[in-house]
Specification:
Radius of gyration: 13 Å
Helix content: under 10%
Order of helices and strands: EEEEEEEEEEE
Number of strands: 11
Largest sheet: 7 strands, mixed
Number of helices: 0
Shape: globular
Structural class: mainly beta
Distance between the termini: 40 Å
Amino acid sequence: QVQLVESGGGLVQAGGSLRLSCAASGRTISRYAMGWVRQAPGKEREFVAAITSSGGSTGYTDSVKGRFTIARDIAKNTVYLQMNSLKPGDTALYYCAARQGIATLTVTDYGYWGQGTQVTVSS
């Protein structure tokens, strides 16, 4: 099975950018649909972005469209989330997730999870 480790979180001012990385091991990410999920304090987990196992299609929640981009590097077995024009509302713990099968934007569809990386956006 696949193991996931996130990195790249931190503190950034509103309007700034961060790039999150999710390094996978154990299996190639080309076998999995991959995604990024975030959870703000006191809130439910929210699916942010997903990419298909082929890498040919991506999907985003409305609140990040045009600001966030999910991508992957098969050679590095890593998935990225480029986050631009960050807002205080983007503050959350960001998780990388994987599933075998089609990519969805539903949290409960994903069975493999990393430990998360904290993103804090100051106003």
